[in-house]
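User: I'm curious whether this sequence folds into something compact or stays loose and floppy. Could you predict its structure so I can see for myself?
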Amino acid sequence: MPYRSYYYNDDGHLSIDLNESQIQDVYQSKKGLLWIDICETNEADGQFLSKVFGFHHLSIEDCVSEAIHHPKIDDFEDHLFIVVHGINHSAESDIVETAELAIFLGEHFVVTNHNFFLYSVDSLAKLVETDTRPMKRGADFFAYIVIDALIDNVLPTIDKMIDFADVIEEEVIRSPQQSTLEAILKLKRSIMRIHRVMGPQRELLNRLSRYEYPIIRENVSIFYRDVYDHIARIEDLGQSLRDRADNALATHLSSVANRQNETMRVLSIVATIFLPLALVAGIYGMNFEHMPELGWRWGYYAVVGFIGLAIIVGTSWFWASKWIAWSRRQVLKVRKPFAVEPEKLIGYISQIKKWPHL
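Assistant: Here's the prediction. I'll summarize afterward.
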């Protein structure tokens, strides 16, 4: 049952890697700030949460279960159970995967639970080990930092999706291939997955910022409003991306229709050049006895020369009219197009040290 534990007492001392007995003692003391982070929760972790903290069994079931839960807030008077979602940056997928983070927020403790590795939580843990200031202002402010880091790590993925949309828009004009259509559908599905969790979280953060829950102090609720603004920005960018994906799909279908027109144009070129030649060949392929040209010594060479000249003149005319052009088509096939470099994800956490309000 691996977990990380941190306890910041009233004297400003930080204790790390507490055992179960120590965790129970500091929890019951109701002093300082206790942070427990559990990753890949199993039944043993559920029993630990029930035994030490006495959390409601429904909340523990949500933590242990691998099912995806809707963003929500459950008020248990002495603590809040909050479910928020971020991006699963460690997923090996061409489509954006979301990751769920459950937070138990009490007056003197914060328990975070997630079934996937989260760069935001891991970076925050490393920061706490070197700089205890994030834990100085209480549990409600520390929970804000956890949520804010999780939401801010969505923005690098949105930036990647915007860059990918730029490539798609160029590709659907230049060379609409099957892979281009697949890329558009990947983008649309990724946008919908983000929207599916960010929409409800917008209302969730709005409730946390309205001083609706006594556990969150009024002077801290304004910081949750800041996270709400970040989600609103993500929603706006997501809406813009949805529009661009829809436009790219429409452009792709139009480009495919244009390619069909090009095919018909090629067939028209072939027909225009070779049908008259086929007529000439058909005439002189007849076996009538009294055809004057059949007795001409240079008749064969004249017909073959006429055919070659007709091909050259016809091809040159179509080339001058820009009906014929040579181009190299590139196939759009990108592996993990929305993957974000880890250093871009943890960069936000490093800025916490510079916050004047810590």
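Summary: The mean pLDDT is 84. The first strand starts at residue 3 and ends at 8.
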